[in-house]
Design goal:
Layout: E1 11-15, H1 20-31, E2 35-40, H2 43-53, E3 57-61, H3 67-81, E4 86-88, H4 119-139, E5 147-150, H5 158-163, H6 168-172, H7 182-192, E6 204-207
Parallel strand pairs: 1-2, 1-4, 2-3, 5-6
Helix pairs in contact: 1-7
Length: about 220
């Protein structure tokens, strides 16, 4: 398959991009002229959303837990486009209680907050923040490394959101006045990948509507 050239000449690879936050990031980057390689385990859905996103979207099946698949995928991207300007490590499993430590891939506000019985999940997120600044030191100045930690993001498909809308209370508890959207995260990622963020590396950016700064006591 011959892929179209990106209008801004830059190529990004987004893991876990068949749905949710990953799909939102891919769509946002494409709207800004990036060539985006979407990867996911779900081949059928990935191919479908890639087609909807247009010529600057290209899908390959990838299991990020399989090192050989990752290496093969990156080689395929380099062979197709001759470059890789950005890597968005979004793929993750969402349930903090039923997950193995080695499966955890994406930073979140759980690096700084916890619920009972989520030790492995919280520890893995904290480790990713440490890994972020360590990689920034090791890979700079050629490569910048930053982490985005989402809070409550309503990443459901539109049909699910319509069938079971969030309540006013869900939104009102956030200092920002609403639950987050995939576009909120995508906008942050797009800025971090832009040339305007060229002096930013080794940092964590929390996108949670202010919830991690909110003091909560039971009355």
């Amino acid at each position: 398959m011959e892929a179209a050239a990106a209008s801004n000449g830059r190529v990004a690879l987004v893991t876990g991009a068949a749905r949710g936050i990953g799909l939102g990031i891919a769509a946002w980057l494409i709207s800004e002229g990036w060539q985006v390689v979407l990867t996911d385990l779900d081949r059928e859905r990935g191919a479908k959303v890639s087609k909807v996103l247009g010529d600057n979207a290209w899908f390959i099946t990838m299991d990020v837990a399989d090192e050989k698949q990752v290496a093969q995928g990156v080689a395929e991207v380099l062979g197709q486009f001759g470059r890789l300007d950005a890597l968005v490590c979004n793929a993750a499993v969402a349930d903090p209680r039923n997950i193995t430590l080695e499966s955890l891939d994406l930073a979140s506000t759980r690096a700084r907050q916890s619920e009972p019985d989520t030790e492995a999940y919280a520890a893995s997120k904290g480790g990713l923040l440490a890994l972020t600044h360590a990689l920034a030191m090791s890979l700079g100045p050629e490569v910048r490394v930053n982490a985005v930690s989402p809070g409550w993001i309503d990443a459901r498909d539109p049909a699910a959101r319509r069938a079971e809308p969030l309540t006013d209370a869900d939104h009102a508890q956030h200092p920002a006045g609403r639950v987050g959207t995939v576009e909120d995260v995508a906008a942050m990622v797009a800025w971090l990948l832009s040339r305007q963020a060229g002096f930013v590396t080794g940092q964590e950016f929390v996108v949670d509507g202010g919830m991690s700064k909110k003091m909560i006591y039971s009355e």
